[in-house]
Amino acid sequence: MGYTRISMTGDWTTRTFPFHLVAIMKLVHIVIAKFKPEISEEIRQEACNHVLSLKNDIPQILTCTAGKTFTERSKGYEWGWVVELEKKEDLPVYAEHPAHQGFLTKYKHMFEDLIALDYMC
């Protein structure tokens, strides 16, 4: 049976595991958005589509999903997206990428509020 040494994130100790027990850690970046009331539904959908297109431009993105809530429990935050990156060090690369900066330039002023959450899993 093959073994590999991995260093866990969060300053955990380095341990040796059989290959079949090694879990691959990734960074999950979640954003939920509350648009200003005057922003049309068409523009909101355009922003969502723009988020999804970032996967084509930013090679660090492993997966990207986005959509509008269908429940009433979101306290006015109607849109959300989840971007998965390979490692913690990819987050600043993603954040500063010209495609991401272009999204912010185009849409940031249209949001009443944004909440971002990043974690490793």
TrEMBL record:
<dbReference type="InterPro" id="IPR044662">
    <property type="entry name" value="HS1/DABB1-like"/>
</dbReference>
<dbReference type="Pfam" id="PF07876">
    <property type="entry name" value="Dabb"/>
</dbReference>
<comment type="subunit">
    <text>Homodimer.</text>
</comment>
<dbReference type="InterPro" id="IPR011008">
    <property type="entry name" value="Dimeric_a/b-barrel"/>
</dbReference>
<feature type="domain" description="Stress-response A/B barrel">
    <location>
        <begin position="27"/>
        <end position="119"/>
    </location>
</feature>
<dbReference type="InterPro" id="IPR013097">
    <property type="entry name" value="Dabb"/>
</dbReference>
<protein>
    <recommendedName>
        <fullName>Stress-response A/B barrel domain-containing protein</fullName>
    </recommendedName>
</protein>
